[in-house]
Specification:
The protein has helices at 9-13, 15-46, 49-76, 79-102, 108-130, 132-136, 142-170, 173-189, 249-255, 257-273, 279-287, 291-310, 313-316, 321-341, 345-373, 376-407, 410-431, 433-437; strands spanning 200-201, 226-227, 233-234, 239-240. The protein is mainly α.
């Protein structure tokens, strides 16, 4: 039974990871507070689902434009430096949001421009951040480390909207943005004890025909340990990268069916079924626009995610993680279709909680698969693809949902999107046998994977 509970070993293994996790958790809380504040401010300025959907577009455009640039930077420069600079930029973006609220800004374009600035910094820094757990943790703890990060995100989703509502009700939007400023500073301080993280080169291995574990690396290229502040070795495989590898992130993803199918699953789930931009409209037509209900929508998703996170040991230790991701993504779509049909508030919140739990399972399994299937010298670029898909996808999906709801209705947009997402995930499961059969590699081989060309 204990194996099903959240695995805390990564917090004991590495002090650097512990600092990174804590800083990211606080930064995520501030981001959630600001997300609700931006949603409220845009709705107050426009009362249009198209404009609330445009928040997603303002976030997605810089991610699509700069996400792959961030991946390239992470594969040729020290990742610690990139993360620090990106975090400093996010502090400046948060300060700008607070300043425009204090000045009484009435231009939605100014607001969305500042949102885009923060997204741009996030796009440049996140690929480097995603490559860190495999460098600070043993291979058999990487999934657990990702699960802890996702759990912190879900807690922020639960607490953040409620905190935002309290702060805005007691003070104003500027105070909510001020919370984000303080949280962004804490996130920056969480990077202080990270060791230098230059990318390393991994030796080529024989391909794995079914997406299973590859052979161990040749003895001549033994791991080179790097010391972290608590004196423990960083499991680092390979030699420092001296030049840019030839392949790009999209090329690597396309050549490996496990990665290709995993990303296609996430695109289907987010672009076709993301519901956040529709929350204000659903709240207005079904629950009289009560701001407390709007916060409950976001918190319900987080409650489901936290529940799944607290039992994530069963997920991180599951050998068939590919099939688990597919099942979770399909469940996400069906749950959101149920939300679109739900009348009573309790049923709507229950559907969102199921969606949140399914999302956590999908995110954790996909994140571990991507990091463990990709050698370190390519992790920056592949992580940038994961970041673009994982963050820009939901924002594009929010914009799609807002436009579709303006042409039809919020329930139609939710039901059609959820069912379409589940159908596409089913198609991926049918067509992509390597992902369906994928098994988590053993600890001794997980970080030494190559990305050979394969065909389904």
């Amino acid at each position: 039974m204990r194996d099903n509970v959240v695995d805390l070993r990564p917090l004991r293994t590495s002090a650097a990871y512990r600092d990174l996790w804590a800083g990211s958790a606080v930064g995520g809380l501030g981001f959630q507070v600001a997300t609700v504040a931006v949603l409220l401010q845009v709705w107050e300025l426009t009362h249009s689902p198209v404009w609330t959907g445009a928040i997603g577009l303002a976030t997605a455009v810089p991610l699509l434009a700069l996400g792959l640039v961030g991946g390239h930077l992470a594969d040729v420069h020290d990742r610690r430096t990139i993360m620090r600079l990106a975090s400093a930029g996010q502090v400046l973006s948060a300060v700008g949001l607070a300043a425009q609220a204090l000045a009484g800004n009435r231009s939605v374009w100014v607001l969305l421009g500042l949102v885009s600035l923060g997204a741009a910094c996030n796009a440049l820094g996140s690929p480097a951040r995603r490559t860190v757990p495999p460098r600070l943790l043993p291979a058999d703890q990487v999934a657990a480390g990702l699960a802890l990060q996702n759990l912190a995100f879900q807690v922020a989703m639960l607490v953040g909207p409620a905190l935002a509502g309290l702060v805005v009700a007691r003070w104003d939007l500027a105070a909510a943005y001020g919370v984000q400023v303080a949280a962004a500073v804490v996130a920056l301080l969480g990077l202080v004890r990270l060791p230098p993280l230059p990318p390393v080169r991994t030796p080529a291995l024989a391909p794995a025909s079914d997406g299973g574990p590859a052979p161990a690396p040749a003895p001549a290229l033994a791991p080179v340990p790097v010391q972290v502040p608590d004196g423990g070795p960083v499991p680092d495989h390979g030699r420092p990268v001296r030049r840019r590898a030839a392949a790009g992130g999209w090329s690597i993803v396309w050549k490996r069916p496990t990665l290709r199918g995993s990303f296609a699953t996430d695109v289907a789930a987010t672009v076709l079924a993301m519901p956040v931009s529709l929350f204000p409209l659903v709240n207005e037509i079904r629950f009289d626009g009560d701001p407390r209900t709007l916060g409950l929508f976001l918190s319900a998703v987080a409650v489901g995610g936290i529940g799944a996170g607290l039992l994530s040991g069963a997920v991180t230790r599951a050998p068939r993680s590919g099939a688990l991701q597919l099942a979770a993504a399909a469940t996400w779509g069906l749950a959101l279709a149920g939300f679109g049909l739900a009348g009573p508030l309790w049923l709507a919140l229950a559907c969102l909680a199921v969606a949140g739990a399914a999302d956590t399972v999908s995110v954790v399994t996909r994140g571990a698969l991507v990091q463990l299937e990709t050698p370190d010298e390519f992790r920056g670029r592949v992580s940038s693809v994961e970041h673009v898909v994982g963050v820009a996808g939901p924002e594009v999906g929010n914009f799609r949902g807002g436009v579709l709801a303006s042409l039809t209705s919020a329930p139609v947009a939710l039901v059609a999107g959820g069912l379409a997402a589940s159908a596409v995930v089913g198609l991926v499961a049918w067509r992509n046998a390597p992902l369906r059969r994928y098994r988590t590699p053993a600890a001794t081989t997980a970080t030494a994977r190559v990305v050979p060309a394969e065909t389904t």
